[in-house]
Amino acid sequence: MSTTEIFLLAMLLIFVVPFAVWRLFKTDYFAPLVIVQIIMGIILGPGVVGAAFPEYHKFLFNPDVVKTLNGVAQWGVMLFVMLAGVELDLKKVWQYRRESATTAGLSLCMPLIFGCGAALLLMNYQGWIGAKAANWQFMLGVGMACAVTALPVLVLLLEKLDILRQPMGQRIMRYASLDDVAIWGVLAVIMLDFERMGRQVGFLVAFAVLTPLFRRMMTRLQQNDRWYIAIFWLLACAFGADWAGLHFMVGAFLAGVVMDVEWFGQEHLDALFKNVLLVLMPVFFLSTGLRTKWDLGGYSVFFVAGLLLAASIGGKLAGAHIAGKVLKWKDGEASIIGWLLQSKGLIEIIFANILLDKQIITSETFTALLLMAVGSTMLTIPVVHPKLNRAQNRGLVGQASS
Q1: I want to staple 305 with a disulfide (CB 3.0 to 4.6 A). Which of 140, 144, 251, 368 is the partner?
Q2: What's the burial of 154, exposed, middle or buried (CB within 10 Å: 0-12/13-18/19+)?
Q3: Considering only CA atoms, which of 260, 346, 362 is closest in space to residue 39?
Q4: Per DSSP, what are the bridge partners of residue 129?
Q5: CA nearest neighbour of 392 among 155, 163, 92
């Protein structure tokens, strides 16, 4: 077969298998289609299907096909994260800056502390800390993996729960976006790449200088022209952020967050969002699954996964409840927000992949983090949905918090 034919077979597999599992087993409540796509991406990777059928896997996902899939996936996730940024109202971020900074800070710091405590416990046993890791790098890396919130998956979950554009959904987006920027910055510190840290400052300065010019230009253009300029801006910001070591998804989000919904029209943005979700995001989920390499390493890895899951969920809930006390939230808000912010998805897997590549963690630790990411994401909808229904009956959802 030609590379094109093999690529088309791989694409057929990517779209058919998750949809078939989702429909046949009716998993929508505990595992929406996006979660099934994430899990199937991992299963179709080298750790499961690749281990069971190595020759078939090597044939179907050969290097040329994987490169093509990665290109499609990167473009899809850039568009998706940009749209998530457009959905965020910066005026509200500034209007509620005390709430946003307080909640984002606590929802990052508490799971970070809990995760570092779990890492400190793991350091007493062999096989968890990577060969090239200093103790502080391992602790901070595992701690930040517990603190990650999966922004792209969070958007999908909020959309699924029908609160993305409600005040609570917008608040959660503000908290998660602030945490995501901080997480990639901390990753640069873990890598000890001082050259990249200098680049990050340069990128942020350039972004701050160019943003007012970009916004002024966009207000003077016709709507059709704005779409083209928005794509140019997206590519430039994604390139700059990746070059600076902040990751292209951070750049894509920043590119979108300085755009206004009114420039494009809500209806057009909704249509693009749904098309990107349908056509491109499944490829992103599988391409990331193909990069996962893990060995189970005995039953101990499941114990460690449970420990990290408890640290992640407990930390996020503790941070949200403390923020709720400080900011005087209504009853039930803190629990909903904490559970939504603890969802990990593929961002945590990407984060863990980087730690594994740099030998800061071992394959066993990576496996535990992988299981934690899947478990935390699958728990979100079943736990939040009944809480949200009770909150809506009390009139809690739909009210803004100051």
Answers
A1: 368
A2: buried
A3: 346
A4: 361
A5: 163
Angle subtended at Cα 206 by Cα 205 and Cα 210, rounded to the nearest 5 degrees: 120
Give the span between the Cα atoms of 238 and 226, in whole angstroms: 18
What DSSP line would sit under 346-383, residue for residue?
A: HHHHHHHHHHHHTTSB-HHHHHHHHHHHHHHHHHHHHH
Please tell me the distance from the alpha carbon of residue 110 to that of residue 197, in angstroms, as a whole number. 25
Cα angle at 286 between 283 and 290, to 5 degrees? 135
The first and second tokens of residue 9, run together, are: 């077979």
CA count, 13 A, side-chain hemisphere, 402? 0
Helix (H) or strand (E) holding 140, with range, is helix 135-147
The distance of Cα 97 from the centroid of its chain, to the nearest Å, equals 23
Q: Where are the alpha helices (DSSP H) in 61-166?
A: 63-87, 90-95, 97-122, 135-147, 151-160
Residue type, 167: P
Contacts of 136 (CB under 8 A, 6+ apart): none
Top-confidence residue, 221 or 194: 221
* pLDDT tens profile 344-358: 876 787 788 778 877
Quick one: which of 11, 311, 15 has its CA closest to 142?
311
Task: Please identify which residue in the block is written with the tokens 């709430």.
Answer: 99
